[in-house]
């Protein structure tokens, strides 16, 4: 079981490192999904990208995986308004099926649970 958790730990970290890096490769996409009531959309895209990369790295390191896991949970909560904004304004995102936008909301619990698993110590 420990090997499986280590593989899942690396995979989770890699997913977030790549997703965070994409904030710098394609910031325009992320800016357009920012809720309009949030100030400084480009800066927030970069900040969230930095945290995704940082927390992804932390979750891959056994000694810091619990910190990275809690950080990823907080990050996923922080970006939820953007996902909710997309679901409530499907007309702004015609390239994405409304069903996908609605399904993303409850499915966000999966990476949160995955990150929570990384906060748990391995059984002795």
Mind explaining what this structure looks like?
- The chain has 124 residues and is mainly α.
- It has one domain.
- It contains six helices and no strands.
- α1 (2-25) runs antiparallel to α3, α1 (2-25) crosses α6 (109-119) and α3 (41-60) packs antiparallel against α4.
- The chain is globular, with a radius of gyration of 15 Å.
- The termini are close together.
- The model has no long low-confidence stretch (mean pLDDT 93).
Write the layout of secondary structure elements.
Elements: H1 2-25, H2 27-32, H3 41-60, H4 65-88, H5 98-107, H6 109-119
Order of helices and strands: HHHHHH
Q: What is the average of the pLDDT values? A: 93
Counted by DSSP, the helix tally is: 6
Largest sheet report? none
Number of domains: 1
Number of strands: 0
What's a concise summary of this model?
This protein has helices at 2-25, 27-32, 41-60, 65-88, 98-107, 109-119. It has six helices and no strands.
What keywords describe this structure?
mainly alpha; globular; single chain; 77% helix; 0% strand; 124 residues
């Amino acid at each position: 079981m420990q090997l499986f958790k280590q593989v899942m730990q690396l995979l989770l970290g890699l997913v977030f490192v790549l997703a965070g890096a994409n904030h710098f490769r394609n910031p325009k996409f992320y800016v357009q999904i920012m809720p309009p009531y949030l100030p400084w959309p480009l800066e927030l895209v970069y900040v969230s990208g930095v945290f995704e990369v940082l927390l992804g790295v932390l979750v891959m390191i056994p000694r810091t995986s619990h910190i990275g896991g809690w950080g990823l949970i907080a990050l996923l909560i922080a970006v939820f308004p953007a996902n909710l904004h997309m679901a409530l304004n499907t007309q702004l995102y015609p390239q994405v099926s409304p069903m996908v936008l609605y399904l993303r909301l409850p499915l966000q619990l999966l990476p949160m649970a995955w990150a929570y698993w990384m906060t748990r110590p391995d059984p002795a």
